[in-house]
Amino acid sequence: MSEVATKLTEPTEYVQFWNDTLADKFDRFRHILMEGLSYHSRVPLERLTVTPGSRILDVGCGWGDTAIQLARKTGPDGYVLGVDCVEQFLTKARDDARKAGLDNIRFITEDVERYPFDGRFDLCFSRFGMMFFENPVLAMKNIRRALRPEGELIFIVWRSSDFNPWLGMAKEVVLRYLPEPGEGARSCGPGPFSMASTEVVSKQLEIAGFRDINFEQLDGPVTVGNSVQDAINFQLAIGPAGEVFREAGELAEQQRPEIEEALREALAYYQDDSGCIVMPSSSWCITARNPVSDH
Ligand SMILES: C[S@@+](CC[C@H](N)C(=O)[O-])C[C@H]1O[C@@H](n2cnc3c(N)ncnc32)[C@H](O)[C@@H]1O
User: Fold this and answer.
1) Residue-by-residue DSSP string for the chain
2) Domain 13-181+190-289's class?
3) CA of residue 274 to ligand 1 center, whole Å
4) CA 281 – ligand 1 centroid, Å
């Protein structure tokens, strides 16, 4: 493989935010973000048939678990390229791939929206890595450029907050004590619900040149904490509630005991027999194809 892990572009404000603010928090809650939410990739990956020797791109691959699953599927004659804008995640991904004995997988730190892909991939996959682009249509066009004609795109995104109480409920609780983040709040990009609308995403994919667009609804459980306290810590660090808490600064710390108590009450309802917090969730598994004609 010829990809070289050199930085080709200056980081955008979102990429900077992922690196300087979210990376450590994500690492701290990897057991939730990678394993607890994995229902949503398990279903599509279990039934995905990959032709041995396929070249596969994993967009926003994080710690690389889905890239590793894909590398096993494509076998020694194929390869997987995992791309993520946070090197810290990829260090762990490379380590896990090495431990798994895989040498058909590579990880590079790049901004997927801007990286000059060259049209070699048979399949592009992403679990929750597509919802943070500065310009989603430009990013989709760039991903299409990575695909060979007839190449396939499969990506998983969250449906709206109404169907994902594991993200929405904690924000409602926190907003009883703290103000909404202001206009100037730093963020990770458009955010987890930015691709919830089938109309919007269909249009974006069409403009980007994709065809045969299909949405499949996946409803299933997510484990958002090993205990009530773990779930509270997670909610106050990451996601919509975490954003409100972070932006409120000193005021949030002053109110922490009351906020934690209110969250404890709300989250305890979802505690299972083993003590884990398990909540309902819903995503779209979206598939699309790069047409032959205009590539
Ligand atoms: C919600 S996480 C999902 C990570 C992983 N796919 C998983 O499911 O565990 C989103 C990932 O997208 C990455 N990301 C966000 N914007 C990106 C960009 N413009 N280019 C590359 N990666 C990006 C983040 O660093 C993060 O690892």
Assistant:
1) --------SPPPHHHHHIIIIIHHHHHHTHIIIIIITTHHHHHHHHH----TT-EEEEET-TTSHHHHHHHHHH-TTSEEEEEES-HHHHHHHHHHHHHTT--SEEEEE--TTT----S-EEEEEEES-STT-SSHHHHHHHHHHHEEEEEEEEEEEE--GGG-HHHHHHHHHHHTTSPPP-TT---SSS-TTTT--HHHHHHHHHHTT-EEEEEEEEEEEEE--SSHHHHHHHHHHSHHHHHHHHHHTHHHHHHHHHHHHHHHHHHHTTB-TTS-BEEEEEEEEEEEE--STT-
2) alpha beta
3) 30
4) 19
